[in-house]
Amino acid sequence: MAIKYTTPGLDQADAERIIALLQSRLHAANDLHLTLKHVHWNVVGPHFISVHEMIDPQVEEVRGFADDIAERIATLGGSPKGTPGALVQERTWDEYSIGRASTQQHLGALDVVYQGVITSYREAIEEVGKLDPITEDMLIGQTDKLELFHWFIRAHLEDQGGALVTEGASSEVEGAAAGAETE
């Protein structure tokens, strides 16, 4: 969809590309905050309370990312799509499939989820960095937080030597299975 205006100093074609990149990040942020809340509700086991309480601040922060991204899209002259139907139709990843499960299973699955989200954020940063330093700065700040949250998750999945039990997992199901092995 062509935009009618954009912010001063940006040409329309660049703004449209940035909006497209941001829309994919909006879907990722909305999906991630819902997935994190799902984990918050469905995690069980001996480390329940620590993981349950660790996840909620991540939910709130990522929900804020979605709002910032949507507002940036609007600032650039676009119309952010935040409906569940648009998310499901346009996402390029599978839905999180782990239900009620142990803390280690969910953390193993979240390790893989965060890897995907962070990788796609870094790819967007690389492209948008050539087009708009303001948007690049916003995405860098969000990636910083995502990487911190990922570290929180991974700290539960590494041994004393720093090896991750989820090494080589390419889906949240594989990550959950690897996490289960540490119980």
List keywords for this structure.
two-stranded parallel sheet; mainly alpha; 183 residues; Ferritin_DPS_dom; 2% strand; 6 helices; DNA binding; Starvation-inducible DNA-binding protein; Ferritin; Ferritin-like_SF; DPS_DNA-bd
Main sheet summary: 2 strands, parallel
The level-1 CATH class: Mainly Alpha
Instruction: Kindly report how far apart the N and C termini lie.
Output: 50 Å
Instruction: Please count the helical segments.
Output: 6
* Class from helix and strand fractions: mainly alpha
Task: Give the number of DSSP strands.
Answer: 2
CATH topology term: Ferritin
CATH architecture label name: Up-down Bundle
Q: How many domains make up the coordinates? A: 1
The fraction of residues in strands falls at under 5%
Could you say which overall geometry the principal axes of the C-alpha atoms support?
A: elongated
Largest beta sheet: what is the strand line-up? 1-2
Q: Can you give the helix content as a percent range?
A: 55-70%
CATH superfamily: Ferritin, core subunit, four-helix bundle
Whole-number average pLDDT?
96
Radius of gyration, whole Å: 17 Å
Topology order in helix (H) and strand (E) letters? HEHHEHHH
Unreliable parts? none
Structure characterization notes:
About 65% of the residues lie in helices and about 0% in strands. The chain has helices at about 10-40, 50-75, 85-90, 105-130, 135-155, 170-180, and strands spanning about 45, 100. The chain has a two-stranded parallel ribbon. Helix 1 (about 10-40) runs antiparallel to helix 4 (about 105-130), helix 2 runs antiparallel to helix 5 (about 135-155) and helix 4 (about 105-130) packs across helix 6 (about 170-180). The N and C termini lie far apart (about 50 Å).
